[in-house]
Design a protein that fits this description.
D-Amino Acid Oxidase, Chain A, domain 2; 21% strand; 14 helices; globular; FAD/NAD(P)-binding domain; six-stranded mixed β-sheet; alpha+beta
């Protein structure tokens, strides 16, 4: 295998090579699906180039709930197939391919005034069914413990901000918690590069022509198959694609606002079956609160924004279960993403299947639908149409997978933590921020970052908190200026 480092020199060389080299597969889109296809194809011996007009994880892939779901919500809607698939793929990520990035997270549904005794029994039954999926997927109990009922004392210990009045305890189950969705995409892309794939960001594909967004130079690539992995924007390359995208919004809170919870808090949406909001604790002292699930009408924005009514919905819903209701001033950041759901049914987008589809016609392979958890299976199904060589990705660890831990660098970089620590100062990029200066250097040196936004928005996620983003920008600008 070649190096996994995505350097500026490598990008320049491989882009030049693409003008005179026939590749087996040209992937359009640098999200989790496109990078998954690139890794799968390269690991089966196909020559691969991936182009992305912006940056890795620029679109939907960086706006997830940071959960690797085991399929509980799909069981509730009767979609047993996707539930089984989700549980299996979660197990692969947690035990083989990315244990440094996906860890067990306790999730608690408080039995409060909005949860009747009957509801509590149904929740417990759902948790037992989800645990059966865990067993079927052969995910060890030591990785994901079993569900159980909690008393009031334990519920309040895990969720210090929970409302005490009328609290009867809670229901506990476990799921996969992703350290950082954008970091997962970068790890997949770099693992693909280690298997020989060309990973080329800031390169636009338009009607068979590639344009380097940095220089303006264009070339016409030669490829046996083009893979459309652009998600919610797939119809721009494959006309007639039927998608029904939905928008998911999250807000970011300080963990102190909720008393520093050590479990995710799940609160039902009043009046809507099988709808919940989640308050998910993160290692940097923040909590992600989400999420909405509403149809998107009209042209899709490249970077969706959270609207005030969406933020209010999340705050109001979670506040029903809190001792101290949330205020708009408690919000320190927000983000929104568009899900590429396949059209074909009426009703709420929240009820649409997360199944994926793969079609191949006249050298254009289009991958639609799906979800972050099942990206590997989506890629497998796509590449199965291109070669008879068996898929290997269920057994290929992503870069960094050889080490786990709770300190910041190990939590985010796994076995590469020592390399990150050696490439720059281990001091914060600005006072009070969790990101270290060495991480910015590493993003440029090994992870293909080219712009300030690449560093702040995708490699470090400082942009999730408005004040962090503003405080860190001078350090990122200075670093790029010094390399110019």
């Amino acid at each position: 295998m070649s190096s996994s480092y995505l350097t500026a020199e490598r990008r320049k060389r491989e882009l030049e090579e693409l003008s005179s080299t026939l590749v087996d597969v040209l992937v359009i889109g640098g999200g989790v699906t496109g990078c998954g296809v690139a890794l799968d194809a390269a690991s089966r011996g196909l020559s691969v180039a991936l182009v992305e007009k912006d940056d890795l994880a620029f679109g939907t892939s960086r706006w997830s709930s940071k959960l690797v779901h085991g399929g509980l919500r799909y069981l509730a809607t009767g979609d047993v197939g996707i539930a089984i698939e989700s549980a299996r793929e979660r197990g692969i990520l947690m035990t083989r391919t990315a244990p440094h990035l996906v860890r067990p997270l306790p999730m608690v549904v408080p039995h409060s005034r909005d949860v009747s005794s009957k509801d509590g029994l149904l929740i417990d039954a759902g948790h037992r069914a989800a645990d059966a999926l865990r067993a079927r997927s052969r995910t060890p109990r030591k990785v994901l413990p079993g569900p159980r009922r909690l008393g009031v004392e334990e519920t309040t210990r895990l969720l210090p901000g929970v409302r005490r009045e009328g609290l009867r305890g809670g229901s506990l189950n476990w799921d996969g918690h992703l350290e950082d969705d954008a970091r997962l995409v970068v790890a997949i892309a770099r693992t693909a590069a280690a298997h020989g794939a060309r990973i080329l960001t800031h390169v636009r594909y338009d009607a068979g022509v590639l344009t380097d967004q940095l220089t303006g130079e264009s070339l016409v690539p030669q490829a046996k198959t083009v893979v459309n992995a652009t998600g919610a924007w797939a119809d721009q390359i494959t006309p007639g694609t039927k998608l029904r995208p939905s928008k998911g919004v999250h807000v970011v809170l300080s963990a102190a606002t909720l008393g520093h919870p050590t479990a995710a808090m799940t609160v039902p949406v009043v009046g809507q079956a099988n709808r919940y909001v989640f308050a998910l604790p993160h290692g940097d002292g923040i909590v992600h609160l989400g999420l909405t699930d509403d149809p998107v009408d009209g042209p899709l924005p490249e970077v969706p924004k959270a609207e005030e009514h969406e933020i209010a919905f999340l705050l109001d819903t979670l506040s029903r279960g809190l001792e101290v209701p949330l205020l708009r001033s408690d919000v320190i950041g927000s983000f929104a993403g568009v899900r590429p759901l396949i059209d074909g049914a009426q009703g709420r987008t929240a009820d649409l299947s997360r199944r994926h589809s793969v079609t191949l016609a006249d050298g254009l392979l289009t991958v639609l639908g799906g979800k972050l958890t099942t990206y590997r299976k989506m890629a497998e199904d796509a590449v199965d149409l291109l070669t008879d060589v068996p898929c290997r990705t269920a057994e290929i660890p992503l870069v960094g997978a050889g080490r786990t831990g709770t300190d910041r660098l190990t939590r985010r970089y796994g076995s590469e933590a020592d390399h990150v620590a050696q490439c720059g100062p281990l001091t914060p990029v600005a006072d009070g921020l969790p990101v270290l200066q060495a991480e910015l250097v590493w993003g440029l040196r090994a992870e293909g970052a080219i712009t300030v936004e690449d560093l702040l928005e995708r490699r470090t996620r400082l942009s999730l908190v408005d004040a962090w983003h503003e405080a860190a920008r001078p350090a990122a600008e200075a670093l790029l200026s010094a390399r110019a």
